[in-house]
Amino acid sequence: MRTIYIRKLRFEEARIKLERELHEAFMDGESYVEILHGIGEGILKRMAIDYVETCGFLKLVETDPMFRSNPGATIVEILAPSKEYINRLKS
Predict the structure, then answer these.
(1) Phi and psi based region of residue 34 (left: phi greater than 0; alpha: psi -120 to 50; beta: remaining)
(2) Distance set, CA 27 to CA 22, 34, 41, 60, 79 (Å)
(3) pLDDT at residue 57 in the model
(4) Alpha-carbon distances, residue 29 vs 22, 34, 88 (angstroms)
(5) Residue 25 and residue 42: Cα distance in Å, rounded?
(6) For 26-64, b where at least 16 C-beta lie within 10 A, e where not — what string?
(7) Cα dihedral sign for 46, 11, 18, 71?
(8) How far is CA 20 from CA 40, 53, 57, 90, in A?
């Protein structure tokens, strides 16, 4: 699982990095991505969730907050073709 660190970044920098790395994960055929946004005031978390909800190829993984290992992270499922299929397209 790929991890995207946007913690301690400014809002606009975090948005650009999140968008770029999610698209890279999609093209690499990743299945899940963990977005580390930290806890703080929840601004980066809200931005990450809003972005994921606007993308047709991403889905938030709902987990019970009682059992979540890291409250400063959001896990996203990438609804994409397999790595083999993407590699054939890249060739």
Answers:
(1) beta
(2) 9, 16, 32, 18, 11
(3) 85
(4) 11, 15, 12
(5) 24
(6) beebbeebebbbbeeeeebbebbbebbeeeeebeeeeee
(7) negative
(8) 23, 16, 14, 18
Are 9 and 44 spatial neighbours (Cβ–Cβ below 8 Å)?
A: yes
DSSP characters for 71-87? TTEEEEEE----HHHHH
Q: Is the pTM of this model over 0.70?
A: yes
Print pLDDT tens along the chain (91 aa).
899 999 999 999 999 999 999 999 988 888 899 999 999 899 999 999 999 999 888 888 876 565 567 888 999 998 866 667 767 777 6
The dihedral built from the CA positions of residue 34, 74, 68 and 64, taken in this order, carries a sign that is: negative
Q: For residue 62, what are its two tokens?
A: 């709902």
Residue 10, pLDDT score: 95
